[in-house]
Amino acid sequence: MISVVLLSGGMDSTLTAVIARAESDDVAAIHFNYRHRTEHRELTAFHAVCDKLSINKRLVVDAEVLRNIGGSSLTDDSIPVSQANLTATDIPSSYVPFRNGTFLSIAAGWAEVLRAERIYIGAVEEDSSGYPDCRKIFFDEFEKVIGLGTKPETSIRIFTPVISLKKSEIVKKSLELGAPLELTWSCYKSEEEACGDCDSCALRLRGFELAGAIDPIAYKKRPKYA
Q1: Which of 196, 193, 186 is nearest to 223 (CA)?
Q2: Domain range for 153
């Protein structure tokens, strides 16, 4: 049984890849470069995680169209990456319009060619930045779209094994399963040392703090968010 896993190189997708590896006979990993701020660092993390998990089937997709579309602080340099605010309810500037829909469409095409039965994606709904394309209902409906848009003999399901977990639970599960968190990258702003003050860094640092663990990657600063 072959699975395709969307692997950004971040903590959530890396744990998802570990789970997919355990639940599948073979795993193929897909990664997207969309000219975002930390594209090069995330690509390095992707290959490092794949090497660690012995994932040999890899596809790196040039998705520059997402930068051309714009509308996100990750792809438009004129939009600043907002400071961390873990109590905010608005969708943050880092939201990339319909990114997961774009990624899943391409992943579904590759999965059909590989005759894969599953697509794994490390989306988190409860303890995330509130992106609309990270909700369970979105993936449930998108699975139906894949069924309607592929060959009759194709059967592909979308698996979201960390969708309901908090970041602290993701940290604990990663440590339990031996996920290589030291190879991952989450920062929205920096490719050298993680900034420590973007939403992604804040969620990650708080997750480690609440899990009673120390994040192994380098930070410019490590504020307390717990």
Answers
A1: 196
A2: 2-211
Domain assignment present for residue 218? The answer is no
pLDDT in tens, 24-63: 999 999 999 999 999 999 999 999 999 999 999 999 999 9
CB 167 within 8 A of CB 201: no
Quote the number of domains for the chain: 1
CATH of the domain at 105: 3.40.50.620
Closest to 1 (Cα-Cα) out of 35, 36, 19, 27: 27
Antiparallel, parallel or unpaired: β 157-159 and 118-121: parallel
Q: Which 3 state secondary structure label does DSSP give 31?
A: strand
Quote the pTM value.
Answer: 0.96
Q: Work out the widest C-alpha separation in the chain, in whole angstroms.
A: 52
CB 133 within 8 A of CB 94: no
Beta-bridge partner residues of 194: 219
State the pLDDT at residue 108: 98
